[in-house]
Write a structure and sequence with these properties.
Lipocalin_Blc-like_dom, Lipocalin, 8-stranded antiparallel β-barrel, Lipocalin family protein, globular, Lipocalin_CS, Lipocalin_ApoD, alpha+beta
């Protein structure tokens, strides 16, 4: 009976440890977004200037995204990258983005594979819609976007500072190679 008791105590302790570890989540402060986004102005091409590493973007160069409003109330999303280098094969992923009710279009749910949707929160946005900082509330995804393949260094530094203040691990940011595009876009 003593061995059985030890077994149950050991199993209980192991189960308690698993439950405690699985319920521990990284606690982040609420993430503020911009007050309002005009989706007509946001539509068009955005070049990726920098990003936190993501498995689906590994080896991507000359990355851009295109957004277009659909009459059915969602945004058509087209992400593109050259695989392996600037001369690599162009890989295109198409999806949809849905504005989150009550967010004034600053929070979107993006879907590339049904039924999965991911967060796309617009955290900083130039009043002229020329650059943006986009991330997720868990601080695991972050993008610096620009209407042109290059972004002024002062603006870039300011966006990195804003991302750091918001709790993103900016030390892990990767600058995106945009060498296959000219500054004319």
């Amino acid at each position: 009976m003593k061995n059985n008791t030890k077994l149950w105590i050991g199993a209980g302790a192991a189960l308690a440890s698993v439950l405690i570890l699985s319920n521990r989540k990284k606690s982040n402060a609420p993430l503020a977004t911009v007050a309002n986004v005009d989706l007509d102005k946001y539509a068009g091409r955005w070049y990726e200037i920098a990003r936190l590493p993501k498995r689906f973007e590994k080896g991507c160069h000359c990355v851009y995204a295109e957004y277009q409003q659909n009459p059915n109330g969602y945004i058509e999303v087209r992400n593109a990258c050259h695989e392996g280098g600037p001369e690599g094969k162009l890989d295109i992923a198409e999806g949809k983005a849905f504005p989150v009710e009550g967010s004034h279009n600053s929070k979107l749910k993006v879907q590339f594979f049904w039924p999965f949707k991911g967060d796309y929160w617009i955290l900083e946005l130039d009043p002229a819609y020329q650059y943006a900082l986009v991330g997720t509330p868990d601080r695991e995804s972050l993008w610096i976007l620009s209407r042109t393949p290059q972004l002024d260094q002062d603006i870039y530094n300011r966006l990195i500072y804003q991302a750091e203040v918001k709790g993103f691990p900016v030390g892990k940011l990767l600058k995106t190679d945009q060498s296959c595009y000219t500054t004319a876009g």
